């Protein structure tokens, strides 16, 4: 491959990567809700999906799929249903969060703090003259909760010593992978056309591997940068202030992307 071919190939690919789409939205939302670790996990899943498409294109599978109308129709329907379903899941989480907020607002705000004497309890808002106030005691965990601001994200349930539950890690990786593969059926045509028009006929295995690694590196660099930017504290605080509105928009966006993939026109 000549230097000009490399430049056109990687330049075209970089432009495609930075174009907002399902991958962009998935990494963005994961970073806003779970921080940079969650964003990087979803990004890694996306890059794994990209690597799958690149491999399939290099060995000719994408050409076979795109040339078979029935297979391509099935792939498009699967992608449409995945994106639409994920959008509905986001919207449903917004509805559940609003219900929980209303339930919490209507519940009586009575909290008991256990005293040292055992068995008894004092109201959390008790003053010095209230029985049990002198014996009221807060453990280290309660002090940690009290020291966090109202806008600070709560610790993840099940996280031990900063480690995420394995199920959560796999869920993020799976989301990124499925968003890029099942949720992106047009990649069949894109990668097939890109490689058919730019890669020389009979390209060797060594150069094929270099092409795949270079494209995966560009994608990972972009999505890692997105995760880093979206997980900054100032950005997360802004997201938390408008979480309902932002998640509603993102959920609708995924649903619309799914509808747009439906092979109805």
UniProtKB/TrEMBL annotation:
Entry GO MF terms: amino acid transmembrane transporter activity
Biased composition (Gly residues): 121-130
InterPro entries in the record: LeuE-type
GO cellular component, one term: plasma membrane
Residues annotated as transmembrane: 6-28, 40-65, 71-92, 187-203, 209-230, 242-264
Main location: membrane
UniProt keyword annotations, A-Z: Cell membrane, Membrane, Transmembrane, Transmembrane helix
One Pfam family hit: LysE
Iron recorded as keyword: no
Claim: Signal is one of the keywords in the record: no
Membrane topology value: Multi-pass membrane protein
Localization annotation: Cell membrane
Annotated segments matching region Disordered: 121-159
Protein name (record): LysE family transporter
Organism: Brevibacterium rongguiense
């Amino acid at each position: 491959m000549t230097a000009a071919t490399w430049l056109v190939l990687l330049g075209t690919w970089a432009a495609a990567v930075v174009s907002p789409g399902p991958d962009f939205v998935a990494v963005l939302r994961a970073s806003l809700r779970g921080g940079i670790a969650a964003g990087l996990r979803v990004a890694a899943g996306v890059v794994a999906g990209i690597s799958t498409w690149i491999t399939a294109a290099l060995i000719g599978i994408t050409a076979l799929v795109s040339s078979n109308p029935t297979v391509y129709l099935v792939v498009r329907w699967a992608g449409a249903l995945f994106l639409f379903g994920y959008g509905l899941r986001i919207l449903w989480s917004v509805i559940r969060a609003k219900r929980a907020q209303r339930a919490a607002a209507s519940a009586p705000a009575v909290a008991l703090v256990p005293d040292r004497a055992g068995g008894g309890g004092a109201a959390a808002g008790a003053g010095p003259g209230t029985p049990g106030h002198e014996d009221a005691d807060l453990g280290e965990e309660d002090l940690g909760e009290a020291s966090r601001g109202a806008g600070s994200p709560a610790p993840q349930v099940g996280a031990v010593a900063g480690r995420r539950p394995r199920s959560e890690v796999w869920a993020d990786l799976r989301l990124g992978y499925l968003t890029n593969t099942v949720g992106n059926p047009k990649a069949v045509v894109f990668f097939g056309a890109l490689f058919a028009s730019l890669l020389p006929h009979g390209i060797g295995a060594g150069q094929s591997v270099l092409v795949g690694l270079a494209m995966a590196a560009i994608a990972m660099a972009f999505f890692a940068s997105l995760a880093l930017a979206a997980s900054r504290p100032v950005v997360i605080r802004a997201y938390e202030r408008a979480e309902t509105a932002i998640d509603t928009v993102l959920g609708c966006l995924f649903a619309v992307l799914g509808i747009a993939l439906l092979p109805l026109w």
